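User: Sequence in, structure out. Go.
Assistant: Echoing your sequence, followed by the structure tokens.
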Amino acid sequence: MPLVPALPLLQAARAAGYALPAFNVCDLEFVQAVAGAAADENAPAFVAVTESALDFGGDAFIRAALDIIGAAPVPLVLHLDHGSGLAVARRAVALGFRSVMVDGSKLPYADNVALVAAAVREFAPAGIQVEAELGHVGHGDRGGGKAASADEGVLTEPDRAAAFVAATGADSLAVAVGTSHGAYKFQGEPTIDVARLAAIAAATPVPLVLHGASAVYEDVVGEVEAAGGALSAARGLPDALLAQAVARGVAKVNVDTDLRLAFVAAVRGLFRDAPATIDPKVILGRGREAVRRMARRKLAACGAAGRV
């Protein structure tokens, strides 16, 4: 399918009460898995590439990814996730990205406004969707010893969100309501501030974005641990909480950890069960199929399945 603009997809999702997963990819197996899952589920989706993944794969990776995306029978949007500034956004747009996140969430408020407004002025005339973040979504401890707390990020204030969108012209807004990046999102019971999220949605009409939306499913964690992994403290966002967020204006949810866990579980299990395996096609193929199954699971959880 030819490349499609991102904003109408997000607006349709918000209006109809579902969300589009933005699947983070770092190699072609992940791109193939996501495109296949979207086709399986007859669903639109975002294929998201972080700045570090862009550096890791290089321009050739993006060109190949665009070939896969263009051949898909459903709308897929190539999206820059957590771009640090205008330079990397320009690189992404030149390569063919149709959506860019310009992340000034760690900057002072005025500097974040200036950065995003500059991005909108530069990219909007070409039909490029600009995502911003207000507040800050933290990151759980990577070592697994300590889970993230909602207080480790700076939560988004509804009135400031409305002012920010008005001042910048951002097409979509990532908000901080208690989730965090990584596999260790919560201490105790998972929770998000749904009242705050509803107030943000009431204050601004733009599609909202939820980062840190992986569920860290217990069955997949169990598969990783059964194959020798160590993830006992991992906690994610349950599908029931995700549904509450989607019902309150979230139109895009970022999914990274769930894909990683599915891939690792499959590859660890292969090495456990067939330790003589050395063919990369077999190894990566097993991981690719697991990622495809997980992407289908997330498309269903977001209500995106069957929306094409």
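User: And one key feature?
Assistant: The two ends are 12 Å apart (CA to CA).
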